[in-house]
Design brief:
The protein is of the alpha/beta class. About 35% of the residues lie in helices and about 20% in strands. The protein is built from eight helices and eleven strands.
Length: about 325
Amino acid sequence: MIFYVAHREHAYTQAVVLLYHRTDLEAWFRLVRYEDAGLLRGVRAGVVIWSDMDRLTSDELSRAAGISAELADNTGLTQLNHPTASLQRFDLLRLLHADGSNAFRVFRPDELEEAIRYPVFIRDETGALYREPPLLHDRPALDAAIARLDGSDLVRPMVVEMIGSPGMDGYFRKYAAFRVGDTIYGQHCAMSKSWFVKNSPEQLLPAHIEEIRTYIDTNPDANAVMQVFEKARMQYGRIDYTFVDGRLVVFEINSNPTVLSDPPTPFAIYDPKPFADLQADALLALPQATEADSLAAIDTAHQSALAKLRRHYQMRRLKLTLRKVLRKRK
C-alpha cells in the first residue's frame, strides 16, 4: 500500500490520476493527512511518502519526524523523503550554489549581501509561485519591496537572483522531471516569452511540440536530475530546472507536485493518459507498494477525501467544458 502524507488542503495533487486515468491505482493508494499520520504506526507493510514539508509549522515537522523515526524500525515499510532531513527550497538552493551547480544565489531579506546580482525577485519558500513576481533592478527597489513584506502573506520570503535567457527562438524554457523512488521521468518542457515560465501558451509552434515530445520520450537529463535529488535527500518530488550556457540550473524541488491539473474533457489539446501511466507505474513499482495492508481509519479518511475531490473535479470538468463551448460560439 502507498500512504501519501500531505497537508490537508493540498491532497489534490494525485486526484486526476486516481479518479480518471488510473482508477486501478486506488486499490493501492491512500491519502493521509498529517494530523492522521500517527495511524501509520499500525501499518505492517507498504510505502510512506512524506510531502508538503514546506507547508508545515516547526511543531508539525517535529511531530512528523518523530513518527518517521518510529516507522523506521518497521522493516516492512519503505519511506520516501523525510520530514526534516529532506532539504527545502532555501537550503537546497544554498547548497547547489555552494557546490558550484547553480550560478544564482538566494538570501533571506535580513541577510543580504552588498554584492547581490540584479535583477532579483522575492518569493515565498512555502508553496508554489503562481504569478510572475516583479523584477527588482537595484537596491532601492529591493529595500522598498522588503519594507512591504510586513503587510504581505509570505511565510518565509526569499530574495532570489534572477537567472536565465531565452533560446534562439526567443522562448525561455523550464523543464520538469519527477522522481518516484528509483524512477526518473520527464513530465514537461514549458516555454514562454516571459522569463517567468509557468505553462506554455495553448498554441505552440510545431517545432516546440516536437521538442517537448523528444524531451519526454528520451528523458535526457535523468542522471543529472537524480544527482540533485540525492543532494536534496529526496526520493519523491518534481524538479524544475533550465539550462544556462549549457549547464543545468535548478529552480526547486516540489515535494507535493500536481501530476495532472485538469480532468479530461473533449477539448483536451493532448492525451494526458501517458503521463498518468508514468506516475502510476512508477508508484506501483515501489517496494511493498502492492502489499494489501491498511487500517480502517486510514481507509475511511481516504475515501472521504477522495469523495470531496471527486465533487471538485466534476465541477471543474463541467466549467472547462462550458468555457470551451462558449469560446467556440464567439
